Amino acid sequence: MSVKTWLMGKPAYNEQIPLGYKQNQMGAMDQMLGMGMQGLQNPTAGFEPMQQETMRQFQQGLPSLMSRIGAIGGMGGNAGHSSAYGQAGTQAYGDLMTRLNAQKAQWGQNNISNYMNMINQGMTPQYENMYHPRQQGFGETIGRKFGNNLATNLTTGGVDWLQQLMGGTQQGGMMGTAAKAAGLFGL
Questions:
Q1: 176 in Cβ contact with 45 (< 8 Å)
Q2: pLDDT value, residue 8
Q3: All residues at 6 or more sequence positions from 117 whose CB lies less than 8 Å from its CB, including other chains
Q4: DSSP, residue by residue, 27-94
Q5: Mean pLDDT across the stretch 33-43?
């Protein structure tokens, strides 16, 4: 503590106190906040590989599906030239895309919910603010006591004391006056 602080006191200040989280826990919470914010930028990210795999499987299975449709319809070898063949393929592709888009939307909604949970975890307060009021120094405390006692003594017989201080001899000169003054002021 410096001499100035000892004499004049300590000013009021705010302090941030950790809430008991370990350093790696605070780092994880910061990382969750960042991941959540980044994830909200593109909530359907990660769905593309599944969509591509489904499309690949559809394209591989389409010729087999079309030959079965042709066999059912009695088209024989002309199935590839039939308008029914083309319509069936177009209909199957449209149905697939509708289902994929619905799944992609659901994927995005699930991710948004997960990212919002991550953001909430990341925004958990890690510190608590504590206010410390001003603390008086020794100089202020002794000065106030001296001033209060001086005022009290001047109003209750302080005139006699002041006369003694200025040169009275009843207490043995200045030394006696200094001793009485120390007693009067609580020092």
A1: no
A2: 76
A3: 36
A4: HHHHHHHHHHHHHHH-TTTT-HHHHHHHHHHHHHHHHHHHHHHHHHHT-GGGGGG-HHHHHHHHHHHH
A5: 91
Contact 158, 47 (CB under 8 A): no
Cβ proximity of 109 and 100 under 8 Å = no
- Strands (E) located in 20-171: 127-132
Neighbours of 126 (CB within 10 A): 15
Helix (H) or strand (E) holding 99: helix 83-122
pTM: 0.46
Within the chain, strands assigned E span 13-18, 127-132
Amino acid sitting at position 95: D
Question: Exposed (0-12), middle (13-18) or buried (19+): which is 169, by Cβ within 10 Å?
Answer: exposed
132, 15 contact by CB (below 8 A): yes
Residue 70 has pLDDT above 90, yes or no: no
Per this entry, what is the length of the chain?
187
Give buried/exposed letters for 60-94 (b at 16+ CB in 10 A, else e). eeeeeebeebbeeeebeeebeebeebeebeeebee
